[in-house]
Amino acid sequence: MIFKSPAPIAALAGICLLSLWRPARADEIATKGRAIFNQYQHTVVTVEIVLKSKVSVGGTPGQASESHQDVTGTVIDPAGLTALSLSATDPAQMMRNIMGGEDESKFKIETELSDVKILLADGTEVPAEVVLRDKDLDLAFIRPKARLNAPLPALDLTKSGKAEVLDEVIALNRLGDVAARAYAASVERIAAIVERPRMFYIPANSMTTTTLGAPAFLPDGRVLGLFVIRSQKGHGGGAMNMFNAQRENLAGIIVPAEDVLKAAKQAPAIAGEKPPAAEKK
Q: Model's pTM, two decimal places?
């Protein structure tokens, strides 16, 4: 028996091991993701909103319009306090940032929420109202207008953790009416972490079912944060330069759970009830 060189054998062995490792790794994240999905899917809700908009161009008053939209919310308290992306409920601020200050006299958009409802898993519609807005975090908090008959499944934001660059995270979402409001899960990957002036995560730019307001989890089940939009003031350039303005002044991010928790503590409680369950030690 003659061995010319061990290199081809070693290379072949490496390829075989790699092919075995990849499915095993995929199965591991899938198993952990399904456990998170089964435990927390009902903390994700569809929030139905009616948005009144008015756009004016060149100082000419625009015609008002009304649209019905579905956005994703995450219930963070059994009494119904729900967190969602402010940009999803009030796009006016985001648009103003994109266009830049010099364009506000030429292009102006105003939006107003006229109706908000939380759609539960059984189809029940719960009338709600916005009780707190946080522009810095791009968060809006809504709560039912009336006391609920039974507590809702809620995410405990105190059970949180941190991620590293290239870590995989699990995102939960509820699909639209065309997909029968099915609950969905996606695997995202952390592309970058920004430390200053405020810490947040930037997910990789891949096509998934994740939407604004969806929660992100570490594979061990701890909460990482919520998907929102970060925007900054643009430098103008007009509506014709909208694409470049979006690319330069907008980014999808994950705001850490601890920041969501701090903001949630500012939301007014229903009379006679304790502050959000997220304050539990």
A: 0.80
